Amino acid sequence: LEEFRAAAAGGNIDAHYFLGLAYVEGRKTGTLQRAEVVAALQHFQLAERGQHAAQARGYAQQLEKEFDRLRRQ
What we know:
The structure is a single chain. By secondary structure, this protein is an all-alpha fold. Helices cover 74% and strands 0% of the residues. α1 packs antiparallel against α2, α2 runs antiparallel to α3 and α3 runs antiparallel to α4. The radius of gyration is 12 Å and the shape is globular.
């Protein structure tokens, strides 16, 4: 995880995809805390310009819906 953080800080867009995955992989979107949703969403939005753009967009859309749901609570 630290390697991906360092790569993302160094400008590697694809590293953001893997940092986002660290939050969501193996978990249902509804089980994420608000801070986790926001952090993962930010990473996936940055990754939308990288090699994993299609997957990142899909995750971002799911997380945007979850963020809206949490905001309405």
